[in-house]
Structures are given as structure tokens and as C-alpha cells.
Amino acid sequence: MTLADVDVEQPPPPPPTARTGRRRRALGIVAGVLILTLAGAGLAASMYYDSVPDPAEFRVDHAVADVTELPLPVLNTFVAAVDPAFYEDPFRPWSASLITRRYVAYAAQDADASSMRIGIMADRLDDQYTHQQILGFYLNTADFGRGAIGLESASQAYFGKPATRLTLAEAAVLAAQVAPDAPANQQSGWERVLRTMVEHGWLTQEEQAQLSYPTIR
Fold first, then answer.
1. 208: how many CB neighbours lie within 10 A of its CB?
2. What is the pTM of this model?
3. How do residues 91-136 score in pLDDT, each as one tens digit?
């Protein structure tokens, strides 16, 4: 008989040390925290998603402009000034559109248009509305200075006319007022808007050369 034939009783494994037990408990706690965090993040995202008023429900107390009555070149001055990538659909998180986020920040009464909360809500609007509709929501709530909120008020304040009668050159003046990094010199901002339009094919160099800086009230 060999040792291999002998049924040797194996000793039981030693109990886990206190350190091992603490490690297991710690890992369990970490896993639980991660699960709760993810669940909480999902709940928070859902709450944020629903916390901004739908544009159809959001009411302003000033005159609004119907963007469907504005020529596309006029509308493009504001796109050029605020977010030239507005018409593109890149896969960037929390909405690619600064225009959408600015509107949402206004509607949600949140000053930080770059926050995650605003981005989540902006994604919802980008999924539900067209570019033209979103641009209209923004233009009718943007602050153009001179106490003018919304494009209709701005058109009256700067040029004494309704927004539907704005020329491209006049619209570029208003667009420069809402540019994120507008220069102090208004005419420099106006020229930058027009250059951006040329760069994106929304205006030819010949058309730009024919424009002159308009008279402001």
C-alpha cells in the first residue's frame, strides 16, 4: 500500500483573517455604492430631462418673431455668430449646439449653459425639434442688450423696424451682440459674423463686399 492509497483527511481551510474580512466587506460596500450611484444618476438624468418647460408650454412676456418669415441668410447671421456647427450633427456629449443649450438655460433659469443638467435637457430638445424651430426658440429669448429680450424687441431697439424687415447687414449687427466672444467694437463683431458666413458658404465674398455697416438708432 502506498501513500496514494491511504485516505488522508485534509484539514479545513483556515478562516479568513480579519484583514481579508474587512477587504471583502469594503469591496461589497464599494459595489453597493457604485450600483446606487448609477441608479441615482439615471434618476437624476430623468428628472433633469423633464424639468425644462417644453417650448410649446414656455411663455414669454414680450413680442416674438416668427422665424419662418425670415430669410435664411438673415437667420444664418445668428448661427455664424453663436455656433457655426449648429447645422451639423457631430456625436458630442450633452448636445452639440450652444444655441440649444442657451435656450434651455434661459427656460430652466440656469445661468450655466455648459452644465451637465443643461446638456441633458438640450439633448431632448435636439431630438424633438428641427434646427429652425430651435433657432426660433433661442432668438425669441436671447438678450441682445439695450434691454431688448428676443429678436423682435432687438430689431425695434436697434433699427426701429420689425424683425421681418431686417436686412442681412442689420441682422449681422444683432447677431454680433449675442456672440460668445464678441469684441468690444461692434463693427469688428459685425465683420467677424460676415467672415464666418463666407467661410461656411452662406455668403459669397462678392456679396460680403457689397454690404456696409448699417446705421443704428
1. 16
2. 0.73
3. 455 555 889 888 888 887 776 777 777 777 788 788 888 899 999 9
Return d(Cα 30, Cα 189) in angstroms, integer: 53
The H-assigned helical ranges of the chain are 18-50, 72-82, 98-107, 116-128, 131-139, 151-159, 168-177, 186-199, 205-209
Q: Which of 181, 143, 120, 127 is nearest to 60 (CA)?
A: 143
Query: Which of 156, 168, 163, 153 minimizes the C-alpha distance to 74?
Result: 168
With H, G, I as helix, E, B as strand and everything else as coil, classify residue 51: coil
Hey, what's the torsion of the CAs at 123, 52, 65, 166, to 10 degrees?
Answer: -50
Alpha-carbon distance of 26 to 45, in angstroms, equals 28
> Of the candidates 170, 116, 113, which has an alpha carbon nearest to the alpha carbon of residue 144?
170
Q: Which three cell numbers stand for residue 217?
A: 438708432
Q: Which amino acid is at 117?
A: R
Q: Which triple of cell numbers denotes residue 165?
A: 424687415
Residue 5, phi then psi, degrees to nearest 5: -85, -10
Asked if residues 64 and 154 have their Cβ atoms less than 8 Å apart, the reply is no
52-96 tens-digit pLDDT? 666 666 667 677 889 999 999 999 999 999 999 998 865 455 555
- The residues, ordered by sequence, that sit 6+ positions from 139 with a Cβ below 8 Å of its Cβ are 65, 67, 78, 150, 151
User: Cell 431632448 identifies what position?
Assistant: 124
